[in-house]
Protein backbone atom coordinates (compact mmCIF):
# COMPACT_ATOMS: atom_id res chain seq x y z
CA UNK A 1 0.00 0.00 0.00
CA UNK A 2 1.20 3.44 -0.94
CA UNK A 3 1.63 5.98 1.87
CA UNK A 4 2.52 9.57 0.96
CA UNK A 5 2.59 13.09 2.29
CA UNK A 6 0.24 15.70 0.80
CA UNK A 7 1.48 19.24 1.19
CA UNK A 8 -1.41 21.19 -0.29
CA UNK A 9 -4.70 22.41 1.14
CA UNK A 10 -7.09 19.59 2.04
CA UNK A 11 -9.84 21.45 0.12
CA UNK A 12 -8.25 20.58 -3.22
CA UNK A 13 -7.66 16.91 -2.38
CA UNK A 14 -8.92 14.50 -5.01
CA UNK A 15 -9.99 11.11 -3.77
CA UNK A 16 -12.67 9.46 -1.66
CA UNK A 17 -12.35 10.83 1.86
CA UNK A 18 -10.60 13.31 4.15
CA UNK A 19 -10.09 12.49 7.83
CA UNK A 20 -9.63 14.93 10.74
CA UNK A 21 -8.86 14.03 14.33
CA UNK A 22 -10.51 15.74 17.26
CA UNK A 23 -10.14 15.71 21.04
CA UNK A 24 -13.16 14.93 23.16
CA UNK A 25 -15.32 18.10 23.32
CA UNK A 26 -12.78 19.72 20.96
CA UNK A 27 -14.88 19.83 17.82
CA UNK A 28 -14.81 23.63 17.75
CA UNK A 29 -11.09 23.48 16.93
CA UNK A 30 -11.71 21.88 13.54
CA UNK A 31 -11.07 24.11 10.52
CA UNK A 32 -14.07 26.43 10.19
CA UNK A 33 -15.23 25.05 6.90
CA UNK A 34 -15.14 21.50 8.25
CA UNK A 35 -16.93 22.40 11.45
CA UNK A 36 -19.85 23.95 9.54
CA UNK A 37 -20.40 20.78 7.57
CA UNK A 38 -19.89 18.42 10.47
CA UNK A 39 -21.76 20.13 13.30
CA UNK A 40 -25.34 19.08 12.41
CA UNK A 41 -24.23 15.45 12.04
CA UNK A 42 -22.31 15.53 15.29
CA UNK A 43 -25.35 16.87 17.15
CA UNK A 44 -27.61 14.38 15.46
CA UNK A 45 -25.46 11.39 16.39
CA UNK A 46 -24.32 12.79 19.73
CA UNK A 47 -20.69 12.58 18.57
CA UNK A 48 -18.33 13.85 21.27
CA UNK A 49 -14.92 12.75 20.03
CA UNK A 50 -14.43 10.01 22.60
CA UNK A 51 -11.46 7.73 21.93
CA UNK A 52 -12.17 5.62 18.85
CA UNK A 53 -15.50 7.30 18.02
CA UNK A 54 -15.80 7.96 14.28
CA UNK A 55 -18.26 10.24 12.49
CA UNK A 56 -18.91 10.06 8.76
CA UNK A 57 -20.18 13.13 6.93
CA UNK A 58 -21.11 13.09 3.22
CA UNK A 59 -20.06 16.32 1.50
CA UNK A 60 -20.52 17.96 -1.90
CA UNK A 61 -18.60 20.63 -3.75
CA UNK A 62 -15.20 18.96 -3.32
CA UNK A 63 -13.23 16.45 -5.33
CA UNK A 64 -13.85 13.91 -2.54
CA UNK A 65 -17.09 12.42 -1.25
CA UNK A 66 -16.93 12.38 2.52
CA UNK A 67 -15.27 13.71 5.63
CA UNK A 68 -14.57 11.56 8.69
CA UNK A 69 -13.97 12.90 12.16
CA UNK A 70 -12.09 10.56 14.47
CA UNK A 71 -12.18 11.03 18.25
CA UNK A 72 -8.91 10.86 20.17
CA UNK A 73 -10.54 11.13 23.60
CA UNK A 74 -9.34 13.44 26.37
CA UNK A 75 -6.70 15.90 25.19
CA UNK A 76 -4.36 15.33 28.14
CA UNK A 77 -4.37 11.59 27.60
CA UNK A 78 -3.38 11.66 23.94
CA UNK A 79 0.01 10.16 23.18
CA UNK A 80 1.47 8.05 20.40
CA UNK A 81 -0.20 4.88 21.67
CA UNK A 82 -3.61 6.55 21.51
CA UNK A 83 -2.83 7.96 18.06
CA UNK A 84 -1.79 4.52 16.81
CA UNK A 85 -4.90 2.87 18.24
CA UNK A 86 -7.33 5.43 16.82
CA UNK A 87 -5.58 5.43 13.43
CA UNK A 88 -6.01 1.68 13.29
CA UNK A 89 -9.75 2.09 13.95
CA UNK A 90 -9.89 4.75 11.22
CA UNK A 91 -8.22 2.38 8.78
CA UNK A 92 -10.77 -0.34 9.42
CA UNK A 93 -13.69 2.04 9.04
CA UNK A 94 -12.34 3.58 5.84
CA UNK A 95 -11.83 0.15 4.32
CA UNK A 96 -15.25 -1.01 5.41
CA UNK A 97 -16.78 1.98 3.61
CA UNK A 98 -14.72 1.11 0.53
CA UNK A 99 -12.61 4.27 0.41
CA UNK A 100 -9.58 3.79 -1.82
CA UNK A 101 -7.83 7.15 -1.89
CA UNK A 102 -7.82 9.06 1.38
CA UNK A 103 -6.22 12.05 3.07
CA UNK A 104 -5.55 12.04 6.81
CA UNK A 105 -4.86 15.28 8.63
CA UNK A 106 -2.68 14.25 11.58
CA UNK A 107 -2.49 17.71 13.15
CA UNK A 108 -4.36 16.93 16.38
CA UNK A 109 -3.00 13.42 16.66
CA UNK A 110 0.45 15.02 16.97
CA UNK A 111 2.55 11.97 16.15
CA UNK A 112 2.97 11.32 12.41
CA UNK A 113 4.79 8.04 12.95
CA UNK A 114 2.15 6.55 15.22
CA UNK A 115 -0.64 7.57 12.82
CA UNK A 116 1.12 5.95 9.92
CA UNK A 117 1.80 2.80 11.98
CA UNK A 118 -1.84 2.62 13.07
CA UNK A 119 -3.10 3.03 9.55
CA UNK A 120 -0.93 0.20 8.21
CA UNK A 121 -1.45 -2.10 11.22
CA UNK A 122 -5.19 -1.45 11.25
CA UNK A 123 -5.45 -2.41 7.57
CA UNK A 124 -4.06 -5.86 8.29
CA UNK A 125 -5.99 -8.85 7.19
CA UNK A 126 -5.10 -12.48 6.51
CA UNK A 127 -7.33 -13.99 3.84
CA UNK A 128 -4.67 -15.72 1.78
CA UNK A 129 -6.30 -19.10 2.36
CA UNK A 130 -9.89 -18.02 1.74
CA UNK A 131 -11.14 -18.80 -1.72
CA UNK A 132 -13.68 -15.98 -1.32
CA UNK A 133 -11.68 -12.95 -0.13
CA UNK A 134 -12.84 -10.74 2.74
CA UNK A 135 -14.61 -7.52 1.82
CA UNK A 136 -12.50 -5.23 4.00
CA UNK A 137 -9.20 -6.06 2.44
CA UNK A 138 -6.00 -4.10 2.88
CA UNK A 139 -5.60 -4.49 -0.84
CA UNK A 140 -8.59 -2.13 -0.94
CA UNK A 141 -6.22 0.84 -0.64
CA UNK A 142 -4.93 2.66 -3.65
CA UNK A 143 -3.28 5.56 -1.84
CA UNK A 144 -3.15 6.94 1.67
CA UNK A 145 -1.97 10.53 2.08
CA UNK A 146 -1.06 12.32 5.29
CA UNK A 147 -1.12 16.08 5.73
CA UNK A 148 0.32 18.31 8.46
CA UNK A 149 2.77 15.45 8.87
CA UNK A 150 6.51 14.87 9.14
CA UNK A 151 7.36 12.96 5.98
CA UNK A 152 10.33 11.04 7.41
CA UNK A 153 8.26 9.87 10.36
CA UNK A 154 5.38 8.82 8.14
CA UNK A 155 7.77 6.69 6.12
CA UNK A 156 9.42 5.19 9.20
CA UNK A 157 6.00 4.34 10.62
CA UNK A 158 4.99 2.66 7.40
CA UNK A 159 8.18 0.59 7.27
CA UNK A 160 7.89 -0.56 10.89
CA UNK A 161 4.22 -1.46 10.57
CA UNK A 162 4.71 -3.29 7.28
CA UNK A 163 7.50 -5.32 8.89
CA UNK A 164 5.13 -6.12 11.75
CA UNK A 165 2.44 -7.17 9.25
CA UNK A 166 5.01 -9.36 7.53
CA UNK A 167 5.68 -11.06 10.88
CA UNK A 168 1.93 -11.47 11.43
CA UNK A 169 1.65 -13.20 8.05
CA UNK A 170 4.45 -15.61 8.93
CA UNK A 171 2.95 -16.43 12.34
CA UNK A 172 -0.48 -16.99 10.79
CA UNK A 173 0.83 -19.24 8.04
CA UNK A 174 -0.11 -22.80 8.97
CA UNK A 175 2.38 -25.45 10.05
CA UNK A 176 1.73 -27.60 6.99
CA UNK A 177 3.24 -24.79 4.95
CA UNK A 178 5.89 -23.32 7.27
CA UNK A 179 8.08 -26.04 8.71
CA UNK A 180 11.79 -26.35 9.52
CA UNK A 181 12.53 -26.89 5.85
CA UNK A 182 10.53 -23.99 4.40
CA UNK A 183 11.18 -21.39 7.12
CA UNK A 184 14.88 -21.01 6.20
CA UNK A 185 13.87 -20.41 2.58
CA UNK A 186 11.98 -17.33 3.72
CA UNK A 187 15.10 -16.10 5.53
CA UNK A 188 17.12 -16.72 2.38
CA UNK A 189 14.63 -14.76 0.27
CA UNK A 190 14.92 -11.77 2.60
CA UNK A 191 18.71 -11.96 2.46
CA UNK A 192 18.70 -12.12 -1.34
CA UNK A 193 16.12 -9.39 -1.71
CA UNK A 194 17.99 -6.90 0.46
CA UNK A 195 21.61 -7.98 0.17
CA UNK A 196 22.19 -9.45 3.64
CA UNK A 197 24.55 -12.26 4.51
CA UNK A 198 22.82 -15.49 5.43
CA UNK A 199 24.11 -18.83 6.68
CA UNK A 200 21.67 -21.73 6.78
CA UNK A 201 22.80 -24.93 8.46
CA UNK A 202 21.31 -28.23 7.36
CA UNK A 203 20.08 -31.00 9.69
CA UNK A 204 23.45 -32.82 9.56
CA UNK A 205 25.17 -29.73 10.89
CA UNK A 206 22.50 -29.30 13.57
CA UNK A 207 22.88 -32.91 14.68
CA UNK A 208 26.62 -32.40 15.11
CA UNK A 209 26.73 -28.84 16.44
CA UNK A 210 23.48 -28.17 18.31
CA UNK A 211 22.49 -31.24 20.32
CA UNK A 212 19.63 -29.45 22.11
CA UNK A 213 18.02 -28.13 18.94
CA UNK A 214 18.52 -31.53 17.35
CA UNK A 215 16.94 -33.44 20.24
CA UNK A 216 13.81 -31.30 20.20
CA UNK A 217 13.34 -31.44 16.44
CA UNK A 218 14.47 -34.92 15.52
CA UNK A 219 11.03 -36.52 16.02
CA UNK A 220 9.58 -34.55 13.12
CA UNK A 221 9.65 -35.54 9.48
CA UNK A 222 11.16 -32.13 8.75
CA UNK A 223 14.37 -32.01 10.76
CA UNK A 224 15.71 -28.88 12.47
CA UNK A 225 17.67 -26.14 10.73
CA UNK A 226 19.67 -23.19 11.99
CA UNK A 227 19.66 -19.70 10.47
CA UNK A 228 22.13 -16.85 10.90
CA UNK A 229 21.25 -13.54 9.20
CA UNK A 230 23.59 -10.55 9.19
CA UNK A 231 23.08 -6.89 8.41
CA UNK A 232 26.31 -4.94 8.07
CA UNK A 233 26.49 -1.19 7.51
CA UNK A 234 28.77 0.17 4.77
CA UNK A 235 31.50 1.41 7.08
CA UNK A 236 32.95 -0.10 10.24
CA UNK A 237 30.25 -0.96 12.80
CA UNK A 238 30.82 0.24 16.35
CA UNK A 239 28.44 -2.23 17.97
CA UNK A 240 27.08 -5.66 17.29
CA UNK A 241 23.53 -6.52 18.38
CA UNK A 242 22.20 -10.08 18.30
CA UNK A 243 18.54 -11.08 18.12
CA UNK A 244 17.58 -14.66 18.91
CA UNK A 245 14.12 -16.05 18.16
CA UNK A 246 12.36 -19.21 19.29
CA UNK A 247 11.32 -20.99 16.10
CA UNK A 248 9.02 -23.92 16.85
CA UNK A 249 6.97 -24.15 13.66
CA UNK A 250 4.61 -26.31 15.66
CA UNK A 251 4.66 -27.40 19.30
CA UNK A 252 2.54 -30.49 19.85
CA UNK A 253 4.35 -31.03 23.16
CA UNK A 254 6.21 -34.05 21.77
CA UNK A 255 5.83 -37.31 23.71
CA UNK A 256 4.40 -35.21 26.55
CA UNK A 257 1.60 -34.44 24.13
CA UNK A 258 -0.49 -31.34 24.77
CA UNK A 259 -4.25 -31.71 25.35
CA UNK A 260 -6.35 -30.39 22.46
CA UNK A 261 -7.22 -26.98 23.85
CA UNK A 262 -3.52 -26.19 24.35
CA UNK A 263 -2.30 -27.65 21.07
CA UNK A 264 -4.55 -25.50 18.89
CA UNK A 265 -2.74 -22.26 17.91
CA UNK A 266 0.72 -23.76 18.52
CA UNK A 267 1.74 -22.67 15.02
CA UNK A 268 2.37 -19.43 16.91
CA UNK A 269 5.30 -21.01 18.74
CA UNK A 270 7.51 -19.62 15.97
CA UNK A 271 6.55 -16.00 16.80
CA UNK A 272 9.98 -15.06 18.17
CA UNK A 273 11.67 -16.33 15.02
CA UNK A 274 9.11 -14.53 12.84
CA UNK A 275 9.83 -11.31 14.76
CA UNK A 276 13.54 -11.73 13.98
CA UNK A 277 12.72 -12.01 10.27
CA UNK A 278 10.47 -8.96 10.64
CA UNK A 279 13.41 -6.97 12.03
CA UNK A 280 15.43 -7.83 8.92
CA UNK A 281 12.50 -6.95 6.70
CA UNK A 282 12.44 -3.49 8.30
CA UNK A 283 16.23 -3.13 8.00
CA UNK A 284 15.98 -4.08 4.33
CA UNK A 285 13.30 -1.50 3.60
CA UNK A 286 15.24 1.16 5.52
CA UNK A 287 18.31 0.24 3.51
CA UNK A 288 16.39 0.75 0.25
CA UNK A 289 15.39 4.21 1.47
CA UNK A 290 18.93 5.09 2.55
CA UNK A 291 17.79 5.19 6.19
CA UNK A 292 19.45 2.03 7.48
CA UNK A 293 21.70 2.18 10.57
CA UNK A 294 25.35 3.10 9.93
CA UNK A 295 26.98 2.28 13.25
CA UNK A 296 25.52 -1.04 14.30
CA UNK A 297 25.76 -4.53 12.90
CA UNK A 298 22.71 -6.73 13.40
CA UNK A 299 22.75 -10.50 13.74
CA UNK A 300 19.69 -12.72 13.72
CA UNK A 301 19.87 -16.27 15.07
CA UNK A 302 17.05 -18.75 14.74
CA UNK A 303 16.85 -22.46 15.48
CA UNK A 304 13.85 -23.93 13.69
CA UNK A 305 12.28 -27.18 14.78
CA UNK A 306 8.96 -28.95 15.04
CA UNK A 307 8.19 -30.66 18.35
CA UNK A 308 6.47 -33.93 17.43
CA UNK A 309 5.91 -37.33 19.01
CA UNK A 310 7.19 -40.36 17.13
CA UNK A 311 9.69 -43.18 17.05
CA UNK A 312 12.62 -40.78 16.68
CA UNK A 313 11.47 -38.27 19.27
CA UNK A 314 13.49 -37.29 22.30
CA UNK A 315 12.09 -38.66 25.55
CA UNK A 316 11.52 -37.66 29.14
CA UNK A 317 14.59 -39.00 31.03
CA UNK A 318 16.95 -38.34 28.11
CA UNK A 319 20.10 -36.44 29.02
CA UNK A 320 21.46 -34.05 26.40
CA UNK A 321 24.98 -32.64 26.35
CA UNK A 322 24.41 -29.14 25.03
CA UNK A 323 26.65 -27.08 22.72
CA UNK A 324 28.27 -25.32 25.68
CA UNK A 325 29.01 -28.67 27.39
CA UNK A 326 26.33 -28.46 30.08
CA UNK A 327 24.11 -31.50 30.47
CA UNK A 328 20.33 -31.27 30.56
CA UNK A 329 17.93 -33.87 31.87
CA UNK A 330 14.67 -33.86 29.94
CA UNK A 331 11.87 -33.86 32.50
CA UNK A 332 9.13 -32.90 30.05
CA UNK A 333 9.40 -32.77 26.26
CA UNK A 334 6.94 -29.88 26.20
CA UNK A 335 9.47 -27.58 27.87
CA UNK A 336 11.34 -27.65 24.55
CA UNK A 337 11.82 -23.96 23.82
CA UNK A 338 14.55 -23.50 26.42
CA UNK A 339 16.45 -26.51 25.07
CA UNK A 340 16.47 -25.15 21.50
CA UNK A 341 17.30 -21.63 22.69
CA UNK A 342 20.13 -22.85 24.93
CA UNK A 343 22.22 -23.91 21.95
CA UNK A 344 21.26 -20.88 19.89
CA UNK A 345 22.23 -18.53 22.74
CA UNK A 346 25.57 -20.32 22.99
CA UNK A 347 26.15 -19.89 19.26
CA UNK A 348 25.12 -16.22 19.39
CA UNK A 349 27.49 -15.66 22.33
CA UNK A 350 30.38 -17.16 20.35
CA UNK A 351 30.01 -14.28 17.89
CA UNK A 352 30.83 -11.85 20.74
CA UNK A 353 27.94 -9.41 20.32
CA UNK A 354 27.62 -6.35 22.58
CA UNK A 355 23.99 -7.20 23.32
CA UNK A 356 21.73 -10.20 22.99
CA UNK A 357 17.94 -9.93 22.85
CA UNK A 358 15.92 -13.12 22.70
CA UNK A 359 12.21 -13.28 21.95
CA UNK A 360 10.35 -16.48 22.71
CA UNK A 361 6.84 -17.81 23.24
CA UNK A 362 8.44 -19.65 26.11
CA UNK A 363 5.96 -20.30 28.91
CA UNK A 364 2.26 -20.46 29.65
CA UNK A 365 3.32 -19.44 33.16
CA UNK A 366 4.27 -15.99 31.87
CA UNK A 367 0.73 -15.56 30.54
CA UNK A 368 -0.63 -16.61 33.93
CA UNK A 369 1.65 -14.09 35.65
CA UNK A 370 1.17 -11.03 33.43
CA UNK A 371 -1.95 -11.69 31.37
CA UNK A 372 -2.09 -12.11 27.64
CA UNK A 373 -1.29 -8.52 26.65
CA UNK A 374 2.05 -8.10 28.40
CA UNK A 375 5.40 -9.74 27.74
CA UNK A 376 7.80 -10.66 30.53
CA UNK A 377 11.19 -8.98 30.26
CA UNK A 378 14.19 -10.45 32.10
CA UNK A 379 17.86 -9.59 31.95
CA UNK A 380 21.32 -9.90 33.43
CA UNK A 381 21.95 -6.14 33.18
CA UNK A 382 19.55 -3.65 34.74
CA UNK A 383 20.58 -0.73 32.51
CA UNK A 384 19.92 -2.76 29.40
CA UNK A 385 16.52 -3.95 30.67
CA UNK A 386 15.64 -0.36 31.54
CA UNK A 387 16.65 1.02 28.12
CA UNK A 388 14.67 -1.61 26.25
CA UNK A 389 11.65 -1.32 28.50
CA UNK A 390 11.53 2.46 28.07
CA UNK A 391 11.49 2.07 24.29
CA UNK A 392 8.65 -0.43 24.56
CA UNK A 393 6.55 2.19 26.33
CA UNK A 394 6.71 4.34 23.18
CA UNK A 395 5.93 1.50 20.80
CA UNK A 396 3.03 0.39 22.98
CA UNK A 397 4.40 -3.16 23.13
CA UNK A 398 3.62 -3.88 26.76
CA UNK A 399 6.37 -5.41 28.85
CA UNK A 400 6.90 -5.92 32.55
CA UNK A 401 10.08 -6.97 34.29
CA UNK A 402 10.25 -10.29 36.11
CA UNK A 403 13.23 -11.33 38.23
CA UNK A 404 16.01 -13.85 37.77
CA UNK A 405 16.33 -15.17 41.31
CA UNK A 406 19.73 -16.82 41.62
CA UNK A 407 19.55 -16.88 45.38
CA UNK A 408 16.37 -18.85 45.98
CA UNK A 409 15.25 -20.28 42.66
CA UNK A 410 18.42 -21.57 41.02
CA UNK A 411 17.94 -24.93 42.74
CA UNK A 412 14.57 -25.30 41.00
CA UNK A 413 16.33 -26.19 37.75
CA UNK A 414 18.91 -28.51 39.30
CA UNK A 415 18.78 -32.19 38.35
CA UNK A 416 19.80 -35.27 40.31
CA UNK A 417 21.57 -36.77 37.34
CA UNK A 418 22.64 -33.86 35.10
CA UNK A 419 23.73 -30.21 35.39
CA UNK A 420 20.25 -28.91 34.68
CA UNK A 421 16.66 -30.06 34.42
CA UNK A 422 14.44 -28.55 31.74
CA UNK A 423 11.62 -28.21 34.26
CA UNK A 424 11.36 -26.43 37.62
CA UNK A 425 10.80 -28.71 40.60
CA UNK A 426 7.65 -26.80 41.51
CA UNK A 427 5.04 -25.23 39.22
CA UNK A 428 5.58 -21.86 40.84
CA UNK A 429 7.41 -19.16 38.91
CA UNK A 430 7.55 -21.17 35.69
CA UNK A 431 8.41 -18.13 33.58
CA UNK A 432 11.31 -17.33 35.91
CA UNK A 433 12.78 -20.83 36.01
CA UNK A 434 12.62 -20.97 32.20
CA UNK A 435 14.45 -17.62 31.93
CA UNK A 436 17.06 -18.79 34.45
CA UNK A 437 17.59 -21.91 32.37
CA UNK A 438 18.32 -19.69 29.35
CA UNK A 439 20.79 -17.61 31.37
CA UNK A 440 22.96 -20.72 31.74
CA UNK A 441 23.68 -20.49 28.01
CA UNK A 442 24.55 -16.79 27.74
CA UNK A 443 28.29 -16.53 27.24
CA UNK A 444 30.91 -13.97 28.12
CA UNK A 445 32.76 -11.25 26.30
CA UNK A 446 36.05 -9.87 27.69
CA UNK A 447 35.49 -11.84 30.87
CA UNK A 448 32.02 -10.46 31.60
CA UNK A 449 28.59 -11.88 30.86
CA UNK A 450 27.20 -10.46 27.61
CA UNK A 451 24.34 -8.04 28.40
CA UNK A 452 21.27 -10.09 27.58
CA UNK A 453 17.53 -9.70 27.79
CA UNK A 454 14.92 -12.36 27.39
CA UNK A 455 11.39 -11.39 26.35
CA UNK A 456 8.75 -14.04 27.00
CA UNK A 457 6.09 -13.19 24.40
CA UNK A 458 3.84 -16.23 24.97
CA UNK A 459 0.91 -13.89 25.77
CA UNK A 460 1.10 -10.91 23.41
CA UNK A 461 2.40 -12.76 20.33
CA UNK A 462 -1.14 -13.99 19.74
CA UNK A 463 -4.46 -12.13 19.91
CA UNK A 464 -7.48 -14.27 20.78
CA UNK A 465 -9.65 -11.33 19.76
CA UNK A 466 -9.04 -7.93 18.14
CA UNK A 467 -7.68 -5.14 20.38
CA UNK A 468 -5.80 -1.85 20.00
CA UNK A 469 -4.03 -1.97 16.62
CA UNK A 470 -4.57 -5.70 16.19
CA UNK A 471 -7.66 -5.66 13.97
CA UNK A 472 -7.86 -9.44 13.66
CA UNK A 473 -7.36 -12.37 15.97
CA UNK A 474 -4.15 -14.29 15.33
CA UNK A 475 -0.47 -13.37 15.19
CA UNK A 476 0.25 -9.82 16.36
CA UNK A 477 3.82 -9.32 15.18
CA UNK A 478 4.74 -8.33 18.73
CA UNK A 479 8.35 -7.29 19.31
CA UNK A 480 9.33 -6.07 15.86
CA UNK A 481 8.81 -2.33 16.37
CA UNK A 482 10.50 -2.18 19.77
CA UNK A 483 13.50 -4.09 18.41
CA UNK A 484 13.90 -1.81 15.41
CA UNK A 485 13.46 1.32 17.53
CA UNK A 486 16.14 -0.03 19.88
CA UNK A 487 18.45 -0.60 16.91
CA UNK A 488 17.84 2.93 15.62
CA UNK A 489 18.44 4.49 19.03
CA UNK A 490 21.68 2.52 19.52
CA UNK A 491 22.71 3.64 16.05
CA UNK A 492 22.14 7.27 17.06
CA UNK A 493 24.02 6.85 20.34
CA UNK A 494 27.11 5.26 18.84
N1 LIG B 1 5.24 -22.96 23.61
C1 LIG B 1 4.87 -23.29 24.93
C2 LIG B 1 4.51 -22.06 25.76
C3 LIG B 1 3.25 -21.35 25.38
C4 LIG B 1 2.07 -21.59 26.05
C5 LIG B 1 3.28 -20.39 24.38
C6 LIG B 1 0.93 -20.89 25.72
C7 LIG B 1 2.13 -19.71 24.06
C8 LIG B 1 0.96 -19.95 24.73
C9 LIG B 1 6.02 -24.01 25.63
O1 LIG B 1 6.85 -24.75 24.83
C10 LIG B 1 5.38 -24.94 26.60
O2 LIG B 1 4.79 -25.88 26.17
N2 LIG B 1 5.51 -24.66 27.87
C11 LIG B 1 4.94 -25.46 28.88
C12 LIG B 1 6.02 -25.68 29.88
C13 LIG B 1 5.72 -26.74 30.87
C14 LIG B 1 5.79 -28.09 30.24
C15 LIG B 1 6.76 -26.62 31.95
C16 LIG B 1 3.77 -24.70 29.49
O3 LIG B 1 3.83 -23.46 29.51
O4 LIG B 1 2.79 -25.32 29.85
MN1 LIG C 1 6.13 -26.79 24.61
ZN1 LIG D 1 6.91 -24.25 22.82
Automatic annotation (TrEMBL):
- What SUPFAM superfamilies does the database record attribute to this sequence? Macro domain-like, Zn-dependent exopeptidases
Identify the residues that the record assigns to the Cytosol aminopeptidase domain, covering every copy.
Answer: 332-339
Concerning NCBIfam families, the annotation shows: PRK00913.1-2
Q: What is its EC number?
A: 3.4.11.1, 3.4.11.10
Q: So where's the catalytic machinery, residue-wise?
A: 258, 338
Q: Which GO terms describe its biological process?
A: proteolysis
InterPro entries assigned: Leucine_aapep/pepB, Macro_dom-like, Peptidase_M17_C, Peptidase_M17_leu_NH2_pept, Peptidase_M17_N
UniProt similarity note: Belongs to the peptidase M17 family.
Q: Listed GO cellular component terms?
A: cytoplasm
Q: Where does Mn(2+) 2 bind?
A: 246, 251, 269, 336
Q: Name one GO molecular function term.
A: metalloaminopeptidase activity
Q: What keywords sit in the KW lines?
A: Aminopeptidase, Cytoplasm, Hydrolase, Manganese, Metal-binding, Protease
Binding, Mn(2+) 1: 251, 334, 336
Task of the protein: Presumably involved in the processing and regular turnover of intracellular proteins. Catalyzes the removal of unsubstituted N-terminal amino acids from various peptides.
Q: Which domain of life is it from?
A: Bacteria
Cofactor, free-text remark = Binds 2 manganese ions per subunit.
Task: Tell me what reaction this enzyme catalyses.
Answer: Release of an N-terminal amino acid, Xaa-|-Yaa-, in which Xaa is preferably Leu, but may be other amino acids including Pro although not Arg or Lys, and Yaa may be Pro. Amino acid amides and methyl esters are also readily hydrolyzed, but rates on arylamides are exceedingly low; Release of an N-terminal amino acid, preferentially leucine, but not glutamic or aspartic acids
- Spell out the subcellular localization from the entry: Cytoplasm
- So which cofactors does this thing need? Mn(2+)
Designated name of the protein: Probable cytosol aminopeptidase
Task: Please state the protein's primary subcellular location.
Answer: cytoplasm
Amino acid sequence: MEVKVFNEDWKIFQGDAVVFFTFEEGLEELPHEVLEKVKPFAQDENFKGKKGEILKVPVSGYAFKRIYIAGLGKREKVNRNVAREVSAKVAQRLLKDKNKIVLIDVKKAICSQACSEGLVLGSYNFDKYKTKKDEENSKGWEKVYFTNADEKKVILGRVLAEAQNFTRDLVNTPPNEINPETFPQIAREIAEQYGFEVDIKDPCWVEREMPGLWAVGRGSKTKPRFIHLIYKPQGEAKKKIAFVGKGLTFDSGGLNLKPEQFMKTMKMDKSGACAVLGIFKALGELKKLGLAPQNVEIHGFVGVAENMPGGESYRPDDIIKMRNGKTVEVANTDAEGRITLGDVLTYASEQSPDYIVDMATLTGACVVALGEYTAGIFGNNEDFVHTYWEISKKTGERMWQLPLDDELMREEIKSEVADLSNLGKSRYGGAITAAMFLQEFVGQKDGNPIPWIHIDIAGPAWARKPYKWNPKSGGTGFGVRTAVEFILSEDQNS
